[in-house]
Design brief:
Chain lengths: 348, 299
């Protein structure tokens, strides 16, 4: 059960989350992406923080979900090859019912497809360790984008337009905003309950010492694969939804966007404090707000700043905001303040 | 697969692809050897490797702009990149050398994004090349063509590789580098300033990549976002060849060049990059499979 502090934070976030688009309707899309970022950071942290496996390729599941969802939404109503070759000029004019049903089915299939891919890939790739895993996933993310950019059926390099939302302009943003809010809450609560149990202990053990964990009888590969599947499941759904709110799927800039989403995931989780539950949420919020407020002043230098930010954070601030707070005020986090405890925590 | 048929009907085409691949592969060998050096000595996997290659390439492009023959860019890129690598070590890398593997991985990953985007801002995302002005030679009644610049690049790569090996074997600094690779602690006890050795190693790696990049700009094209492909190629070559085995690095590098060329021909040029990255996944899985077999045997 959540304690009183946590309950208060939950309530505050819930009130702010529901009030935000109503108070500032002009920024609904930006707020929606805040929740997407929260999902990104949380799902990255399952492997990167809790399990100690730095993945640069989680964006694969996101992009896959985006394409699968769009295909499922379009294919029943028109010829897919014709639709993509018309590159957006063909309007299939879905009714409300068709749209919502298509979106629901599309996201479900996207989630399942991403999970299956994670399981298949994971059973091989998660046997790799350390550097090898990280670089392998880096290759995977780029390979996926390049391959998607070569398949004509889904529009190849020129991308693919997702179906038009049947409602009005303002209602579309609000609709997706609440979907993303719900998704972020579900992801958070799922991970919270998962971390609290045996599973959380097992993946933490894998992070701390994988050989020992295996020697203790933990089926490490199985746990690792399941952890990746959890990430992939939610990223698949997020991908399907983001494809619809953006309205256009570019293989390397939107779907398998290693240079933006793929990097942001890592950065946000580390910024907030990897290996903690609230850290990625905090990191996502801080990063997204900073990005929306200041980055327009950088005139195209945003991505340069992004690289610089990664270096600075990784080198000088690797424990993240929450990790720093925990070191500073251990009593607030329920740790006894004994010198020995503090020292051992620093080593961990 | 009409391309495959073509290969069987025209055996000379195989020769052409093989030759081109091997000549290009020699450039991969340079970058891969640099990566093996940094990996072996500092235990850092430098994801910014490919970006160093690209910087070297842009040195050659700029030389072309100001009217100096791009071949002179090869030594110039080596010097510039050595200084750059040294400075980067003093600024960033020395803070992560002794830390967790992930810290150095993420830090160099950040550096790679930083450099890549800086290059994009300065030189735009256009594909560029440095024109060397060399001819193309024809063999076998014009059936096989070899661009002279590729041959020059191959020979230069061989010379640079030879010089490097000589340097590591004979010079004091080279010996210190090898000693540090074997056992950094013992090297420190014996009075080697390992910090300096690390800085020199990182600088040397950057210089190697710089020369490779200048050669790439002359034989091929460069573009700010192509860097990662070179990182992955280097990594792949080192994984296949192992650390500290120069012969294997050469064979793996030339083999990769040839394989890539054949794949580019068979699958179409648009899938060549996808092939490189997919091959990485396959190579790593194959490695883990072999390790797994060894593990079962021990059990």
């Amino acid at each position: 059960m959540p304690n009183r502090n946590e309950l208060a934070i939950f309530l505050a976030v819930a009130v702010a989350g529901i009030a935000a688009p109503l108070v500032l309707p002009g920024y609904t899309t930006q707020f929606a992406f805040l929740w997407v970022m929260v999902v990104f950071a949380l799902t990255w942290d399952v492997l990167g923080g809790q399990m100690g496996y730095n993945s640069f390729g989680n964006v694969v599941f996101f992009g896959l979900g985006m394409y699968v969802c769009a295909v499922v939404q379009i294919a029943p109503f028109t010829d897919l090859a014709e639709y993509t070759s018309a590159s957006g000029t063909q309007d299939i004019g879905l009714s409300h019912g068709q749209y919502y049903l298509g979106l629901a089915v599309g996201c479900s299939i996207a989630a399942v497809a991403a999970t299956i891919v994670a399981a298949v890939l994971g059973s091989g790739i998660l046997a790799l360790r350390g550097h090898y895993f990280a670089i392998c996933t880096l290759g995977l993310g780029i390979a996926a984008g390049e391959i998607a950019a070569g398949i004509d059926l889904i529009g190849a390099g020129s991308g693919m337009v997702t179906p038009l939302y049947p409602g009005g302009i303002g209602s579309r943003e609000r609709f997706f905003y609440f979907l993303f809010l719900a998704l972020a809450v579900v992801v958070f609560l799922t991970l919270r309950s998962v971390y609290a149990g045996r599973f959380g202990l097992a993946i933490n053990a894998i992070r701390d010492d994988e050989d020992k964990a295996e020697a203790m009888g933990i089926r490490t590969t199985r746990y690792k694969t399941v952890a990746w599947c959890i990430s992939a499941f939610f990223l698949g759904i997020a991908g399907g939804l983001v494809g619809n709110i953006v309205g256009f799927i570019d293989p390397t800039e939107v779907a398998f966007a290693g240079a933006t989403f793929g990097v942001w995931m890592v950065l946000m989780a580390i910024l907030g404090g990897k290996g903690t539950l609230w850290g990625p949420v905090l990191g996502a919020a801080v990063f997204h707000v900073t990005q929306e407020v200041f980055w327009t002043y950088l005139f195209g230098w945003q991505r340069v700043a992004l690289g610089l930010l990664i270096v600075l954070i990784v080198v000088f601030f690797p424990q993240g905001i929450l990790g720093w707070l925990r070191e500073r005020y251990p009593e607030r986090f329920g740790h006894r303040i004994e010198p020995a405890e503090g020292a051992s925590r620093e080593g961990a | 697969m009409s391309e495959l048929d073509l290969l069987f009907q025209m055996p000379v085409l195989n020769l052409q692809l093989l030759l081109d691949g091997i000549l290009v592969g020699s450039i991969f060998v340079l970058a891969a050897y640099g990566m093996a050096l940094v990996w072996g000595v500092m235990n850092v996997i430098n994801i910014a490797q490919g970006e160093f290659v690209m910087i070297g390439g842009y040195v050659a492009v700029v030389f072309g702009w100001i009217g100096i023959h791009p071949l002179f860019a090869v030594p110039a890129a080596a010097v510039i990149l050595f200084v750059f690598g040294w400075a980067l070590y003093r600024l960033v890398i020395f803070r992560v050398v002794d830390r967790d593997l992930f810290v150095s991985l993420l830090a160099t990953f950040g550096l790679s994004i930083l450099i890549q985007q800086l290059l994009n801002q300065i030189f735009t995302a256009d594909v560029q090349a440095a024109d060397s002005g060399f001819d193309t030679m024809l063999f076998l009644n014009g059936m096989v063509s070899v661009a002279q610049i590729k041959l020059v690049a191959f020979l230069l790569a061989a010379v640079i590789g030879g010089l490097l090996m000589l340097f590591l074997r004979v010079s004091r600094l080279g010996q210190a580098i090898r000693a540090t690779a074997q056992n950094a602690r013992a090297a420190r006890i014996l009075g080697i300033d390992t910090d300096r050795v690390y800085a020199a190693t990182y600088g040397l790696n950057a210089a190697l990549c710089g020369t490779a990049g200048a050669l790439v700009a002359m034989t091929w094209v460069i573009q700010p976002f192509q860097g990662l492909a070179y990182t992955v190629r280097s990594f792949m070559i080192v994984v296949v060849a192992g650390l500290g085995n120069i012969g294997a690095v050469i064979v793996a590098g030339l083999g990769l060049g040839a394989a890539e060329n054949f794949a580019g021909f068979l699958l179409g040029a648009e899938f060549q990059v996808a092939f490189v990255f997919s091959l990485l996944v396959v190579v790593l899985l194959w490695r883990s499979h072999r390790l797994g077999r060894k593990r079962r045997y021990l059990r």
